[in-house]
Amino acid sequence: MPSIALQARQHLALTPRLQQAVRLLQLSSLEFQQELREALDTNPFLEYVPPASETGEAAEAAEGAAGIGAAASEAPTALADMPGGSMESGMDGGAAQETSSYGDEQGNYSDENSGYQDEGGGYTADLPSSGSLRSSTYRGSEDGDSEASDWVRVPISLRDQLHEALRLSPLDELDRAAAQIVIEALDDDGYLRQELADLVELEGVADILDEDRLRVALCVVQTLDRPGIGARSLSECLALQLEAMPGDTPHRDLALQIVTQHLERLARRENGELQRQLGCDAASLQAATALVRRLDPKPGNHYGRADGGYVIPDVIVRQVRGKWVVSVNPAIEPRARIHKLYAEMFARSDQTSRSPLAQQLQEARWLIRNAHKRCETILRVGECIVARQKAFFQYGEIALRPMLLRDVADELGLHESTVSRATGNKYMATPRGIFEFKRFFPRELETRTGGTCSAAAVRALIKEMIDAENPRDPLSDVVLTQELEKQGVRVARRTVTKYRQMMKLPAAEMRRQI
User: Fold this and answer.
1) 427-430 and 315-320: which strand pairing?
2) Whether residue 409 is found in the same domain as residue 485
3) How far apart are CA 236 and CA 292, in angstroms?
4) Domain residues for 447?
5) pLDDT reported for residue 365
6) How far apart are CA 67 and CA 303, in angstroms?
7) Does any domain span residue 323?
């Protein structure tokens, strides 16, 4: 018959503090900065810590107004007089003694050496200075400071390039306005997919411009920069590029006839019908077809996108005195600390530990601690990657070694999932460029001699072979597979095809030049 019984059992659960630590670790640098700004806006116990340069400028301006005229190098000492104490207070090197930043997945959260006070005592858990993160921290600029915008990749967009070229064109006011309207109507790939009649109907345009003037303006825009910009169809785009070639280009007229009248037949590879329609031999058709295939169907893609993603590196790698040094990017360091004045006022009040203000103070202290641990963990993982992939920084991608997340986890004493979070959406600035952490974890491939090599090294070999090939006799995927076999790398033909497509390299027939 039914009965009620009590049963005691144990189960693992993440504490709220550890849940926050895990969530912060897996955020990208931009998402983390946004999270920190939201906390600064909503939590009264958090205050912003300005960079040393901003504080120095403010202190110098104040002293100049008072007639003191102190040197700018002494300005950062004004931090010690601000509420919350000096920026140098905090961990004082304790972070370097930590054995684990996030512990394991069982909730073991170790911070006995973190330098922060326990939940029960004090409210002065200031964020450590950037210099106390690790002894290997190396500033990104000569003045010891860097801004996030210094690492933002901002390529010029298609519209900006065309507007700049338009300024140099000798046009009257109406023609210039018409050209600006056409430029703004272009898509990101360079095509004009709106009808000119629709542009005339825009508010305020019909009163001063007509369709004929916009048509003339379109012709002007098509000559401002890369041939093919401003085309209204693929056929027109290819035709503009062919017309921009010198008149004595071999088979140019035949190729122009193909793209304007027989583009669909070319796509269906109806070579026999094309020969009959054009009245040419097979060799001439092959040469004209090869000329068409070298054209760019989307010329606008060579420009930056206005809505492109921004990448800010989390760590910076530099070679200092023959050694590779890894440091946290100063531009993404968390600039927040407990507001000492508010914390002391709360401590003198009669608020209970369950009041909303007490909860906000606890959340502020957790956020500061977890933000620092996030930087520390990312730095440790970055140092481990650099130590294991030193050959990459000297010789390039061809020297990348196979590496697994488990290798880094075992070396650092972290859980593999923690390393996965610390490498996801994280970037490293190196002398060879900015790379995602995941780039340094290529999978392992066997060689003929029984050794191993990385998939990234195989892709680099394929790229080198294609760059060095004869344009008139390009290497097919089968030949590439055989060449790799001669160098001791065993890969299947379909693997070579996959790697070639990953690098956005066309097939041999598309690379052939006559």
Assistant:
1) parallel
2) no
3) 13
4) 442-514
5) 93
6) 52
7) yes
